[in-house]
Amino acid sequence: MATKVKCQYCGKWVSRDDSVAIESGHLCATLREQGLDTATLKATHDSKVATDVKGMYKTAQLHKVCVALNIPVSRMVKAWGGDRMLGTPVNPKFTVKYGPKNARYIDNWAFTADGLSAILGAKVDANKARQAVTRVLGADVANQLYK
Q1: What is the pTM for the complete model shown?
Q2: Does 32 have pLDDT greater than 90?
Q3: What is the overall mean pLDDT for the chain?
Protein backbone atom coordinates (compact mmCIF):
# COMPACT_ATOMS: atom_id res chain seq x y z
CA MET A 1 0.00 0.00 0.00
CA ALA A 2 1.27 3.46 -0.88
CA THR A 3 2.36 5.83 1.85
CA LYS A 4 -0.02 8.69 2.57
CA VAL A 5 0.71 11.97 4.34
CA LYS A 6 -1.34 15.09 4.94
CA CYS A 7 -0.45 18.19 2.97
CA GLN A 8 1.25 20.58 5.36
CA TYR A 9 -0.77 23.50 3.95
CA CYS A 10 -4.32 22.33 3.30
CA GLY A 11 -4.57 19.05 5.20
CA LYS A 12 -5.59 16.97 2.18
CA TRP A 13 -4.22 13.42 2.06
CA VAL A 14 -1.59 12.99 -0.66
CA SER A 15 -0.12 9.69 -1.84
CA ARG A 16 1.92 10.42 -4.99
CA ASP A 17 5.58 9.72 -4.32
CA ASP A 18 6.70 13.23 -5.23
CA SER A 19 3.94 14.77 -3.08
CA VAL A 20 4.77 12.52 -0.14
CA ALA A 21 8.43 13.51 -0.38
CA ILE A 22 7.64 17.23 -0.02
CA GLU A 23 4.60 16.71 2.26
CA SER A 24 2.53 18.89 -0.04
CA GLY A 25 -0.05 18.35 -2.76
CA HIS A 26 0.63 19.46 -6.33
CA LEU A 27 -1.60 22.55 -6.13
CA CYS A 28 -0.15 23.76 -2.85
CA ALA A 29 3.40 23.17 -4.10
CA THR A 30 2.64 25.09 -7.30
CA LEU A 31 1.16 28.02 -5.38
CA ARG A 32 4.21 28.08 -3.09
CA GLU A 33 6.47 28.22 -6.16
CA GLN A 34 4.43 31.19 -7.40
CA GLY A 35 5.33 33.06 -4.24
CA LEU A 36 2.45 32.49 -1.83
CA ASP A 37 3.65 32.25 1.75
CA THR A 38 2.33 29.62 4.15
CA ALA A 39 -0.16 31.94 5.87
CA THR A 40 -1.66 33.12 2.57
CA LEU A 41 -1.84 29.56 1.27
CA LYS A 42 -3.69 28.38 4.39
CA ALA A 43 -6.03 31.38 4.20
CA THR A 44 -6.78 30.60 0.53
CA HIS A 45 -7.68 27.03 1.42
CA ASP A 46 -9.73 28.04 4.46
CA SER A 47 -11.77 30.47 2.34
CA LYS A 48 -12.91 27.50 0.24
CA VAL A 49 -14.11 25.41 3.19
CA ALA A 50 -17.74 25.44 4.34
CA THR A 51 -18.69 24.17 7.77
CA ASP A 52 -22.40 24.42 6.94
CA VAL A 53 -23.49 23.08 3.56
CA LYS A 54 -27.20 23.77 4.07
CA GLY A 55 -28.72 25.00 0.80
CA MET A 56 -25.84 23.47 -1.17
CA TYR A 57 -25.56 20.21 -3.09
CA LYS A 58 -22.60 18.14 -4.21
CA THR A 59 -21.05 19.08 -7.52
CA ALA A 60 -21.34 15.39 -8.47
CA GLN A 61 -25.12 15.84 -8.44
CA LEU A 62 -24.84 18.91 -10.68
CA HIS A 63 -22.69 16.81 -12.98
CA LYS A 64 -25.52 14.27 -13.31
CA VAL A 65 -28.04 17.02 -14.09
CA CYS A 66 -25.72 18.50 -16.74
CA VAL A 67 -25.23 15.09 -18.35
CA ALA A 68 -29.01 14.54 -18.41
CA LEU A 69 -29.43 17.89 -20.20
CA ASN A 70 -26.51 17.32 -22.60
CA ILE A 71 -24.58 20.22 -21.08
CA PRO A 72 -20.84 19.59 -21.47
CA VAL A 73 -19.25 18.93 -18.09
CA SER A 74 -16.33 21.11 -19.14
CA ARG A 75 -18.73 24.08 -19.21
CA MET A 76 -19.91 23.23 -15.69
CA VAL A 77 -16.32 23.14 -14.42
CA LYS A 78 -15.42 26.40 -16.19
CA ALA A 79 -18.53 28.04 -14.71
CA TRP A 80 -17.19 27.65 -11.18
CA GLY A 81 -13.66 28.76 -12.01
CA GLY A 82 -11.97 25.57 -13.17
CA ASP A 83 -11.24 22.22 -11.59
CA ARG A 84 -9.17 23.76 -8.82
CA MET A 85 -11.48 26.75 -8.49
CA LEU A 86 -8.67 29.25 -9.03
CA GLY A 87 -10.48 31.18 -11.75
CA THR A 88 -13.42 33.54 -11.38
CA PRO A 89 -16.87 31.90 -11.38
CA VAL A 90 -19.39 33.14 -13.98
CA ASN A 91 -21.68 34.10 -11.10
CA PRO A 92 -20.90 34.54 -7.38
CA LYS A 93 -23.46 31.82 -6.66
CA PHE A 94 -21.18 29.36 -8.48
CA THR A 95 -18.56 29.55 -5.74
CA VAL A 96 -17.70 25.97 -4.82
CA LYS A 97 -16.86 25.09 -1.23
CA TYR A 98 -15.28 22.03 0.29
CA GLY A 99 -17.62 20.35 2.75
CA PRO A 100 -17.41 17.20 4.85
CA LYS A 101 -14.84 14.66 3.63
CA ASN A 102 -13.47 17.19 1.10
CA ALA A 103 -16.55 16.80 -1.12
CA ARG A 104 -17.26 19.87 -3.24
CA TYR A 105 -20.56 21.68 -2.77
CA ILE A 106 -22.28 24.37 -4.83
CA ASP A 107 -25.25 26.64 -4.14
CA ASN A 108 -28.65 25.22 -5.04
CA TRP A 109 -29.15 28.12 -7.51
CA ALA A 110 -26.88 26.22 -9.93
CA PHE A 111 -29.67 23.63 -10.28
CA THR A 112 -32.27 26.17 -11.41
CA ALA A 113 -33.00 26.93 -15.06
CA ASP A 114 -31.16 30.27 -14.66
CA GLY A 115 -28.13 28.56 -13.12
CA LEU A 116 -28.02 25.86 -15.79
CA SER A 117 -28.42 28.54 -18.48
CA ALA A 118 -25.42 30.38 -17.02
CA ILE A 119 -23.39 27.16 -17.29
CA LEU A 120 -24.42 26.52 -20.88
CA GLY A 121 -24.27 30.13 -21.99
CA ALA A 122 -27.70 29.71 -23.60
CA LYS A 123 -31.28 29.35 -22.44
CA VAL A 124 -32.16 25.99 -20.86
CA ASP A 125 -35.76 24.79 -21.05
CA ALA A 126 -37.18 25.05 -17.51
CA ASN A 127 -39.36 21.96 -17.88
CA LYS A 128 -36.47 19.78 -19.03
CA ALA A 129 -34.27 21.20 -16.26
CA ARG A 130 -36.93 20.45 -13.66
CA GLN A 131 -37.25 16.86 -14.91
CA ALA A 132 -33.49 16.34 -14.72
CA VAL A 133 -33.32 17.82 -11.21
CA THR A 134 -36.25 15.62 -10.15
CA ARG A 135 -34.41 12.50 -11.35
CA VAL A 136 -31.18 13.44 -9.56
CA LEU A 137 -32.31 15.23 -6.38
CA GLY A 138 -35.93 14.14 -6.02
CA ALA A 139 -39.32 15.76 -6.41
CA ASP A 140 -39.22 17.63 -3.08
CA VAL A 141 -36.06 19.49 -3.98
CA ALA A 142 -37.24 20.17 -7.54
CA ASN A 143 -40.50 21.60 -6.19
CA GLN A 144 -38.55 23.99 -3.92
CA LEU A 145 -36.25 25.12 -6.72
CA TYR A 146 -38.95 25.46 -9.38
CA LYS A 147 -41.77 27.22 -7.55
Answers
A1: 0.77
A2: no
A3: 88
CA distance linking residue 38 with residue 8, whole number of Å: 9
75 to each of 64, 99, 116, how far by Cα in Å?
13, 22, 10
Report domain extents, the chain. 5-46, 56-145
* Side chain identity at residue 60, one-letter code: A
Number of residues that make up the chain = 147
Bridge partners of 107? 56
Coil, helix or strand for 4? coil
Q: Which residues pair with 4 in a beta bridge?
A: none
Q: How far is C-alpha 118 from the chain's CA centre?
A: 16
Number of neighbours of residue 51 by Cβ within 10 angstroms: 7
In angstroms and rounded to an integer, the radius of gyration of the C-alpha atoms of the chain is: 17
pLDDT digits (tens, 9 = 90+) for 8-27: 887 778 888 888 888 888 88
Distances (CA, A) of 64 to 8, 34, 58: 33, 35, 10
